[in-house]
Amino acid sequence: MSHKRRLFTLIELLIVIAIIAILAAMLLPALNKARTRARQTRCLGNLKQIGQAVAIYADSSDGNLPPLYYGNYQAPFLQPTLARTVFNVELGASSSAEELLKTMKTPFYCPDVTADSLGTHQHGSFAANLSHVFATSPANAYSPKPRKISGFRRPSQIQMFVDARGGTGRNNWEIACLVEFAGHAANLSGRHNGGANMAKVDGSATWDRREAIIDNRNDLWGHDNQ
Ligand SMILES: [Zn+2]
Ligand SMILES: [Zn+2]
Q1: Which residue, of 55, 132, 178, 218, has the fewest CB within 10 Å?
Q2: Three-state secondary structure call for residue 82
Q3: Do residues 210 and 203 touch, judged by C-beta distance below 8 A?
Q4: Environment of ion ligand 2 (residues, CB < 5 A)
Q5: Is 72 exposed, middle or buried (0-12, 13-18, 19+ CB in 10 A)?
């Protein structure tokens, strides 16, 4: 009897272990999904902060947006200017891996971007809409002449910053309109559930599918602001 009873207990134990294993296997993807979702929400919050930083900058600059470049177009200007004037941090000044990790905690980085994917690029992971927001025209993309926020007809629909792919060089902090420069689609991220977060001209932030951004749905690139 006691022998039989022990055997039964062993089977019970095995069943419990099996159930725990099944539950864990079911729970892990859900946990990962929740974490992915949390990073997407944090990214959206970062873009909202950048949108507000632009508004603060404009408030003290006669309603003008910060210029995309200052003189030499190879030198990033926009993101470091916002970082310096509104958040009091220096982007692109990191001298070590530790410094870079500190910079990556600022609102200029998507929480899904890793230090490894950045290389020497340290000016944030959100690309500025250079064609129709920060430059005066696509033909004059490198003009430092700023636009006024009040000049936009649909400020809640036009994106001024979009989540961009990690990488070195300029590719990650500016993006040309994908209608005229389809090749720039490679700069666009789809790391949040197949889509990207964006900061709109009015300071709000939204998410959209990567394809919708490439297809210029609702003219989110801003063609009525040539
Ligand atoms: Zn992101
Ligand atoms: Zn365009």
Answers
A1: 218
A2: helix
A3: no
A4: 131, 177, 179-180, 221
A5: exposed
Within a domain: residue 114? Answer: yes
How many structural domains are present in the chain?
1
User: Rounded mean pLDDT of 196-212?
Assistant: 97
Alpha-carbon span 181 to 127, nearest angstrom: 14
Q: CB burial class (10 A; 0-12, 13-18, 19+) of residue 152?
A: buried
Ligand 2 mean position to 109 CA, how many Å? 25
Element housing 22 (H / E): helix 2-59
Q: Which of 167, 166, 160, 110 is nearest to 130 (CA)?
A: 160
Confidence tier at 171 by pLDDT (50, 70, 90): low
Q: Tell me if the pTM is above 0.90.
A: no
Closest ligand to C-alpha of residue 198 is: 1
Integer Cα distance of 29 and 34 in angstroms = 9
15 belongs to a structural domain = no
* Burial class of residue 85, CB neighbours in 10 A (0-12, 13-18, 19+): middle
Give the C-alpha separation, 5 to 22, whole Å. Answer: 26
Domain boundaries, position 170:
39-225
